[in-house]
Amino acid sequence: MMLLATLVQTMSCLVCVAYVYAKSPAFKPWRPGQLPHNKLVLVGMFGFFTALSIAGTYLGPPVHGAIANTRAIGAVLAGLIGGPRFGVAVGLASGLHRWSLGGFTALACGISTTVEALIGGLVHRAAVRSNAPERVLRPWVVVATTAVAEVVQMAIILLVARPFVDAWTLVAQIAVPMIVANAAGAALFMSIIRDRIQTFDKVGAESAARALRIAERASSVMAKGLAPDVAEEIARIIHDETGVGAVSVTDTRSVLAFVGIGADHHRVGSSIRSESTLRAVAAHEVVFLDGVREVFRCPIHAHCPLSSALIVPLVVDGEVLGTIKLYEPANKAFLRINRTLGEGLSSLFSTLVLRSRYQEQKNLLVMSELKLARAQVNPHFLFNALNTVMAMLPITSQPRALLNHLANFFRKNLKRSNELATIEEELEHVRAYLEIEKARFEDRLSVDLDVDPALLKIKVPSFTLQPLIENAIKHGISEMLGPGRATIRVWRDGDDVRIDVEDNAGTYEEVKRAGGGLGLGLVDRRIRSLGHGASVEIHCLPNEWTRVSVRVPSAEAA
Amino acid sequence: MRALIVDDEIHARRDLERILDLTREFSAVATCGNAIDALSAIQADPPDVLFLDIQMPKVSGFELLSMIDPAHMPHVVFVTAHDEYAVKAFDRDAVDYLLKPVQQERLAAALEKLKRAMHEPPPAYRAPPLERIPCQSGTAIRLIDVAEVELVRCGVAGVFVVTASVELLTDLPLHVLEAKTDLVRCHRQVLVNIRQIAEIHRPEPRTAVLVTRSGKSVPTSRRYYPRLKERLGIVG
């Protein structure tokens, strides 16, 4: 009975070691059935279990020239955790050590320690083969394995140790206490380790769940892109889910949102002043100020409680859009888990921004398709309607003539291809248009045509002339209080052919200042595409005249 | 009712004139081809109702509203060729708005509204602040940016808008300019642009002489100086 008490004491020491080990930073949760890949860690584990086993030998009380011990705990656990080969290595090391100590059971104990470790290893292998490696962590498996191993040890002592009578006496005395103490010790040891692994699993699962929640909440918000109200929402989500002191979202220049401690002086809309943020933006890298070695110093307020910060740049298509910043105050450590999470946020939000951009593009496409569909008037319907109305009007009436011009204008619009047209065709098109505009403006519009007949067959891109005269009327003459006069001049200027459209409003500068598009971009591009110095130039004398000059090399255009 | 049609397109004017005649509701219908002419016409003989086009040369229909002396303000019916035009922003104030070409039935409905509105004075239109002041420059009309104006003074010949380089006559009365721009009254006959004041001289405790950026002296009177001081942020 005394012996059992002593062994329990010994075992308690070992379990205590297990507790300290599991709590120490050296402990890395591992998957049962897998040994660490890192050689150094493997050697460390070997040393640890061997020392554990040897400690079992030393702490045990001498009994009849032998040692009652808890050596089996280290050996069997090494086998259970590391498999047969790892177990045998530990068992052999510990066994050799026991053998070196001498006594009549020295050999028997040396052999049995190795065999015990092997038994642990075989249980490990069986568990792995049946695809349930986590079974080796179960207390009852450990109890049974250790008990069996101890029984085997007793048998080996009886078989190997001589004289047999002494061995028998010894075994009769130590068998029960050793089986009980070793089995209980190994099981306790293993359950401590199992608890730690489960804690790690739980923390991991929780943070994964948190990351998923952030992703889910953010993706519904981010559909709108990175606008200030979206930024505010995102900062709030991250703040809620991580529980850090404060969160801010910035673009590359200013703070878009700030939630949490220090919101009183970290104002939305203020420009970024922290150097670390600028560093994160410039270098596209995560900046971490742990609050100890590198302290976050608030650039705005000297008594700002925030002291540690994680600054994560948002990179989309190789371009930094802004940053997400997580802060903790001086009295709270920046959790490693939040750091990992924060870094993960970068790629999450980058993906979300990309998605919202894609969505936007898709919407634009749908919009333009709709616009196109709306713009398509059935030409048969249009011409039939115009013909019907014209037929109802007296043959010589002005309205009938006007409708005829309108029909001609539309017909030419539809007929003309995207290719080149002669200046003559361009003038025809423009005449129909001008007849309608002259009727509309009556006394306020007059148009002079000054065309060199020799140039009528010169070819220019179609739809060149009409947009020019339309601009002169729409942005020029219609904005005049007095009478407006437009001039179209087609003439030879050295080797070039010039088409000048001039109005007497001189409003070009004004329209340009007001950001009004003149719609000349397309004309300009098509003329330039002719090459050989073909160009469109605009000259303007404010309040006097605006002149658009198209220059086409005659050799090219002819 | 007496109506004024303001539209820059002659056919639209004639058309609406004919259609108004057909209703026999109007004792007189006048027409103007632009906002500047309309402004003089309204000042000379304020109509009861204005049929107002929005897009017109130089001065839009909206701008015209901000130039009309509130005392002469008629009821307004907008007439426009484009239904997407920003008339909607005004439709709480305007009696109605009509799409060109005006249809008889639609006009009849507008006239019903108009008859009811006639019992009350026209609302204060939420016209935008006046940014340009129409001035006579020889035979032409020039629009002077309010920001460029140093002062406006009332003389025997009329109201003069004074900038660093020119001095032009305008048809707008002083009180309209005071109400519709941020020019500030500093004397019974003078408005001054606060942003153009360069110096303030104090010959007497209760008045001052202002000097504009281009060096023009502007008198102030005892009656208006205290308010001006407030605007300038001068204490004491």
Which fold name corresponds to the CATH topology of the largest domain in chain A? Arp2/3 complex 21 kDa subunit ARPC3
Order of helices and strands of chain B: EHEHEHEEHEEEEEHEEEEEH
Give the amount of beta strand of chain A, in percent: 15-25%
Shape of chain A: rod-shaped
CATH superfamily of the largest domain in chain B: Response regulator
Structure description:
The complex is a heterodimer of chains A (about 550) and B (about 240). Chain A has about 550 residues and is α+β, with helices and mostly antiparallel strands. Chain A has three domains: about 1-200, Arp2/3 complex 21 kDa subunit ARPC3, CATH 1.10.1760.20; about 225-355, Beta-Lactamase (2-Layer Sandwich); about 415-555, Histidine kinase-like ATPase, C-terminal domain (Heat Shock Protein 90, 2-Layer Sandwich). Helices cover about 60% and strands about 15% of the residues of chain A. Chain A is built from 16 helices and 14 strands. Chain A has helices at about 1-25, 40-60, 70-100, 105-130, 140-160, 165-220, 230-240, 275-285, 335-375, 380-390, 400-415, 425-440, 465-475, 510-515, 520-530, 555, and strands at about 60-65, 65, 245-250, 255-260, 285-290, 305-315, 320-330, 420, 445-450, 460, 485-495, 495-505, 535-540, 545-555. In chain A, the strands form four sheets. Chain A has a five-stranded antiparallel beta sheet with strand order 4-3-7-6-5, with helices on both faces. In chain A, a hairpin with a 2-residue loop joins strand 6 (about 305-315) and strand 7 (about 320-330). In chain A, helix 3 crosses helix 6, helix 6 (about 165-220) packs antiparallel against helix 7 (about 230-240) and helix 12 (about 425-440) runs parallel beside helix 13 (about 465-475). Chain B is α/β, with parallel strands linked by helices. Chain B has two domains: about 1-115, Response regulator (Rossmann fold); about 135-230, Beta Barrel (OB fold (Dihydrolipoamide Acetyltransferase, E2P)). Chain B contains six helices and 15 strands. In chain B, strand 13 (about 195-200) and strand 14 (about 210) form a beta hairpin. In chain B, helix 2 (about 35-45) runs parallel beside helix 3 (about 60-65). The longest helix of chain B is centred in the N-terminal third of the chain and has 14 residues, at about 10-25. Chain B is elongated, with a radius of gyration of 21 Å. The mean pLDDT of chain B is about 85.
